Amino acid sequence: MKILITGAAGFIGSHMAEYLALKDYDVYGIDNLSNYYDVNLKQHNVESIADAGVKFIKADLRFPEQYQDLGRDFDFIIHFAAQPGLSKDSTFQSYVDNNVLVTYQLIQFAKHQKQLKHFFNISTSSVYGKYATVSENVAPQPISTYGITKLAAEQMVLSESRQQNIKASSLRLYSVFGPRERPDKLFTKLIECALNDKKFPLYEGSLKHQRSYTYVGDIVKGIYNALKVHNALDGEIINLGHFEKHSTQEGVLNVEKILKKHIQIKNLPPRSGDQQETQAIIDKAKLLLNYQPKTSFREGIKQQIEWYKSQNKIMV
Length: 316
Description:
The structure is a single chain. The protein is of the alpha/beta class. The protein contains nine helices and 15 strands. The longest helix is centred in the first third of the chain and has 19 residues, at 92-110. The chain is globular and about 55 Å long.
């Protein structure tokens, strides 16, 4: 089976590409290696997936001419590439270009893949809005530009399914963490601050925020299960996350306990677009994908700490 994975140099995309390559799928990974965060980290991910057998292509999916180097005859497309998060440095246009325009261009490419079996759009719990504690049947109410543009991308993909142009589904992921997590994300930042005696930037009110933190390995296995049962998934939207929820404060305390280090806090004003609570309702994923996240919150943090130490050669 020939699989195209977009955003393959990123956090989750690299894990997915590596996992499938090691299972002997013919995996092509594409990424534009943007400077949203340190490109050296992405290059390291590229080296890891190449070692596993992934064929990597650097290209910018916003531009139609760059699709010429991707080849043809893909059986599956898994679309991770996006402008992520709530960074104040990300412009409105960057979200539109990288979440909406890229998805549109990728759909046009997909419709010319004669043997395409399924297009998996990777979405986010951010589409639900301030409280992502509901099933897939509830209408999304996004409150951030990120969530709005990811919902638009999702609906573009599903509209092609409704018109029977391609078979497609959308997987909404919940607060994924683990090795290779971006440096601006919660646990990588907490670990960095703890080990290097830096102050952790905490947005006002966020200590009480609750999330369905989900270990990246469980997400990868969930998507793999979706790949195996793709025939039953056309037009479906499916939540993928951990059924438990934990507060930011619990995250801080766990990192402190595991590392035996106190984390100092730098208080910041509240951040616009932040979700207050997420809790993944995964009944549908259990039914259709036999999905069952198994990695505990604490174990996932431990795995991420070990990865961070190995990458940064930190002795504690």
